[in-house]
What does this fold into?
Amino acid sequence: TSTTMELTTAAQEVTSFNFLNVSQATPKPSPLPQGWISFDGTRGYVLDNVPAVGSSFSVALVLVQSPGTSGYIFAKTDNGLSRFYSLYSSQFTRAVTFFYKVAGAATQLSAQFPVQLDDGNVHSVLLTVAETSVSLVVDQGAYDETLPLAGNVADCGVSSATCALHIGQRTDPDGTGTRAFNGVMYRAFLYTDDLQANPLTTITPSTTTTTLLTESAPEAEQIDIFSLSHTTTSPGVSTRADGGYNFDGTGALKLESFPPLSSSLSIVATLRQDFNTNGYVLAKTDASGFERYFGLYSSGSSNRVSFYYSAPGRGTSVVNFPVTLADDQFHDVLFVLEDGIATLIVDTLTIGAQELASATLGDCGAPSDSCLFFIGQRSSVVGGSFKFTGDITRLELHTVALDVFPGVDTNTSTLYEFVSLLDEDVHDQAILPSPGNIYVFDGTKGLTVTSAPDVSTKFSLLIEVRQDKGSSAYLVSKSTVDGSRFWGLYSSGFSNTISLFYRIRGSTEQKTVRFPAAISDNLLHNIVLSVDGDEATLRVDGATVGSSSLGGFVDDCSVGSSDCVLNVGMRADGGAGVFFLTGALYKVNLYPQDAI
It folds into this structure.
């Protein structure tokens, strides 16, 4: 048998307050069955009539956080940046952070628990503040740690214009919601005492039968998954001329018939995933989607492919492979299961092999209301989640473990290789990241990169930035010590442009091309500069804003040489820095060999 969460609320002698009471929420979310609340990662809500807390209190929750996401579970704030008490779960730090303030102090403090919630699984969470300590218990003690606090936690009191409890978000300086949670909350209560155990959940055996995967048949079989009986869930899935399917991110294919899985098999796929998107290639689950028997998930935001599976006695488990498929390029993907080892091969390159928790995996069996198989999403309590965006032209199940992608004998890799210039191992750490691996720049300093590859005649920059309104700054600059730019990207809030400053090989003359792009608006933007030989193209938030001839190949220098400086959030100027960024950088990826 498998296990499911049975939600119960124990009798409490202390006062409790329901965080999911939508009658007191602004804006009012639409609850799912049984009062559950779904959060789409764009906004949460504010609760009215929240009681003040004392020096000891607890928050108990049952939730699912979407894989590869970060967000605030709750935050008591002044409707600005000050967080009196809040809980933030980050995919980047792989940790849960409790932000707080103490009475009489303006400093924002934090205590970080190294436990990861963003795995798509159901978790019970109990946060307990007991005067000058805070503890976090996950899944009834699977994780349990207590950390010291700098003093008693301060609170702004009862709800008011300058004292608000946010669920699924916190506030920006202008009072709007930000850092929104993505997932589902099933129960969430504030208790006015320091609880010793989570009163909301118990684990009890369910009546759902889990069929163990049988050993693969001795005769190898190849099954074209697209040839199996299926239906489309929305008009957002269309047939391609080559027999494959295009997915626009709104629909999927539901298989009406499918063979049983085995513990030795291979999945063969040729696909193109839209740039920087997330989604399931395929997933076999129960109706809720939480019990995943077999699922391949590709995340562009966290640069990984995940395999979700069911291990007897453990429920849903996952292994991850460090590779980006969401780059708008076609890839040949071979996923192999054999003897409890999962191997991922992309474009004939072996990305990695991961040992599973069990060589014998679970399966829900034949199609039914509690056993669903989708292409392009997984099932969920809202009908479908984590939808794939792009094209899948080939999808096969092989009942044996293959060694190579069938029909491809040579290296046809189109994988983009990149280095993150925000990786703490490659810069001088003049600025340290905030929770969520976000780098905040105050306009007085930037980062100096200490290790990075040279670029070729083709290279690209992918930048996710929030630039303060009306400000101007360098996002990235590679130059001599005195500031003569080999190449650099400058955003102007005065002219509402992004400029590529550069020089071509064999010349020191500074050249410039400008693209119309108003990004200094205090909003998050995705910037892609793609240099392909003597042409540069700029995309902002997925839309091409311009292309320009450069008149030659962009020049470059080697980081670490005597007169070569690579900066983030500024450019060099005679040993100092100028044109500093005011805002925040979430991602700065350098693709040294590819025009993406």
Notes: The chain is about 0% helix and 45% strand. The CA atoms of residues 246 and 391 lie 4 Å apart. Confidence is low (pLDDT under 50) at residues 1-14, 202-219. The radius of gyration is 26 Å.
